[in-house]
Amino acid sequence: MPKTKNEKYYRVASNHQERQRNWDLMKPTSWGQWNGNHRRLQNTESPCISTCTTATNLSSLGEFQSNSTMSSQRKMKDNNLRMVVHEIEPLQKKEADEKLEEPCVPPKTNFVRIRSQLFATLAVSWVSLIIGYSTAYTSPAQASLELDFGFTSLEISWISSFMPLGALAGGLGGGTLIENFGRKWTILLTNILFLISWLTISFAQTYMYLYVGRIITGIAVGIGSLSMPVYTAETIQPEVRGSLGLFPTALGNVGILICFLSGTFFQWRALGVVGGILSIPFLIMVWFIPETPKFLMSKGQDEKARKALQWLRAADADVDKEFLEMQKIQKDSDDNHESILVLFSRNNLKLLSIVLGLMLFQQFSGINAVIFYTTKIFKESGSELKDSVCTTIVGVVNFVSTFIASLLIDKLGRKVLLYISSSSMILSLGVLGAYFYMKNVTSIDVHPLSWLPLISFMIYVLGFSLGFGPIPWLMMGEILPARIRGPAASISTAFNWTCTFIVTKTFLLIMDSIGAHYTFWMYGIIVTGALVFSIAIVPETRGQSLADIERKLAGVRTRRISSIANLKPMPSTC
Fold it and tell me: Coiled-coil stretches, from where to where (predicted)?
């Protein structure tokens, strides 16, 4: 039955009144009221609960017959829609900003939640095991090399020193590799180089093959030392980055221990075969881990980056906030893209100097000289224990101490462990110097103190592994800004291995020139400088995301934004 004109009029008027009531409810008196009003309207059964429905109801005014009335209502509709858009757009922007700024509860870090990160860290840290094995190789191999090739001490020192020389070259080239080919594939390349180097050493017929094999080993060591901490820093969530970040050091110490133990049974050629065998698990595991989300995002592969992040944080983890934060950082990095000269800006140069300082003190503590020549040092100390037994004991302490550090680093922080580390090394180097002074300079009988070198070495290695062993590499991945991380890490790694070369090449020369006592005291004085440097210069990074660290060191005040990898999404109310 057709409606009369009056019926049409009353129906339209009723719709208009209802629309006006809903608009009055929806219109906020302040920003904070908008979201609550909007949700309240969504929970009603009114036909006018959304902008689209409002527009639909407004269109019903077209039933007015008067052209002037229709024109007036169209203007009202347009004005209302403009008001809605005007209100919603800033609100959406504000909500997006608040989502990044709001603090969140630290995620659960049980095994189920971090098992993917654990596997990825184990896979890339295996390169550290091979690095540790390579570093310790000359100590147990020295006697059999001298027997087969008639090497002098100077020639043996070159076999030791060729590895850090190769590592210097690998460190310089590694930055370009990780920026162009990715962290994962660069790490995989190191494994191939390790296989080639150990095969060359194992089947060497002349000393030249040994030299070439050690140089290739060094190149792999340099590239691996650079790419490994960058991968772990970019994949591990802040709450466990300290503990899992010590995996490389732990496995490096395992490699040293394996080499020392193998040296009690095998000669130099068989030791090379063992090194090649150790490369096989590394080759297999790396195939099953993803590229880092940060690298994928830097190449514009956001979807792959999100999948990689989801794999690392568990399938049911909420990665939205962390992913948004990564996108924001990447956008800022892209917008501020500058030449390599940005590396030498005031703030970046300061951060690079901190990393270089840590690398300097790490190596000039004398650790690699001690590891390279442990057997020789114990032989000269006059210890009643066999030098091979003492060397193995030091390797075991080196291995165990890393696990102690992994339990403490996220509780005490980086700086406290650096204090403990340097203090322990100062004490042990001072005692070692005093022992060799009494033995070589005075007429004091040190036979009753023959146990002292072993205890001192144990304290020295324990102290080093607690702090100055792992923390410089860990902080290299933490404090270097994302946009310079590749080249800065390359410079840092090359500098580290340059220091290693200087220390290992000069250690025996210095001992022969000024005596073991002055040599150990000299390193003790350097470590005293390391303690002062740690107190005055090194920043604390415990429990902070890479984004927080970068903004804090750039002088920007920020609120704590934790990784939300393991938080469940909040139920939606609107």
Answer: none
> What is the DSSP track for 311-377?
HHH-TT---HHHHHHHHHHHHHHHHT---GGGGGSHHHHHHHHHHHHHHHHHHTTTHHHHHHTHHHH
All domains of the chain, ordered by start, with CATH?
5-94 (no CATH), 111-323+335-553 (1.20.1250.20)
pLDDT value, residue 66 = 46
Count of CA atoms in the C-beta half-sphere (13 A) of 85:
8
C-alpha dihedral sign at 287, 293, 299, 304:
positive
- Of 15-29, 77-91, 108-122, 231-245, give the range with the top mean pLDDT: 231-245
b (16+ CB within 10 A) / e for 229-252: bbbbbbbbbbbbbbbbbbbbbbbb
**Residue 528 pLDDT > 90:** yes
What SS3 state is found at 108?
Answer: coil
Give the Cα separation of 538 and 548 in Å (integer). 16
| Nearest CA-CA partner of 11 in 59, 63, 47, 51 | 63
What is the tens place of the pLDDT at every residue in 125-155? 899 999 999 988 988 888 888 888 887 777 7
